[in-house]
Design goal:
about 325 residues, mainly beta, Jelly Rolls, 27 strands, Pirin_C_dom, Pirin family protein, Pirin, RmlC-like_jellyroll
Length: about 325
Amino acid sequence: MSNPEARPDEVVCEGRDAAGVELMSPREVPLGGPRAMLVRRTLPQRHRSLIGAWCFLDHYGPDPVDRTGGMTVAPHPHTGLQTVSWLFEGEVEHRDSVGSRAMVRPGEVNLMTAGRGISHSEVSTDSTTVLHGAQLWVALPDESRHTDPGFQHYAPAQVTGAGWRGRVFLGSLLGDTSPVATFTPLLGAELVLDPGATLHLPVDASFEHGVLVDLGSVSVGGLDAKVADLAYVPPGTAQIALVAGDDGCRILVLGGPPFGESIVMWWNFVGRSHEEVAGYRAEWQAQITDPRTGEVVPDGRQVAEGRFGVVPDQPLGPIPAPVLPNARLRERR
């Protein structure tokens, strides 16, 4: 998914520990278009930008497509990250410049590695009536961020216990392990708890964790969280106490060791300096601009392959990059 903000903030991300569980509330961001499907964003925030390598989290829906228009995200670029798509309802078609064409369906994870550069599109299908899911980004560490772009798909089996059931799509949890490859240790899982159920969730104490509430409500380590809240659990916790509310809950559990690097994140790019990010932007604009007219090509055919490649058989025109802010993007300190 693209960051749809016309004036996206530049974010210098630095991992920071907290003394205990903290609750982060989302802000609403319109995806654009005449009816503007809204997403609820909990990462990044000014006081906390990463949880492990997780650096971006949008939660959306359930939205009736006949009212919102669904998801139509035309070809756009990424660098230095992996995108993770997870749906609760609906269906989205993913296409990218390495030739991948896959459906995002509930309970199945799509992970795209941008590495040195990729472009992709995401469009909800005609059969989708309700769209509901989460879009997440993972920052790549310095030694891996120029890797080849790629794509992985995985449908995890359901694991169950007393009063709960879940699917582990990244990393290991509750006796199950995902085969999806990542460049830093990560955890990603969906859990559903019955009304009033308690789960003492064993986790890796070297990780910091985030618990995103999708439905219902849940107490996370004694802190009550509602829909779209993100509860942060610092490293040093070997067991997270989860207690579902009266209506039960559905949550995403995310985690990873503190990232240990600062990154500069602007629009759809993750880099390490102003010059690098500005360079990515310039390359994308050159790739989608007709040199004869100086205008962005309107019919979905990028002028040149370039760093980001071309999304094949996609009639939607590419998304131009926003204008860089007047201030210099802060470099890694």
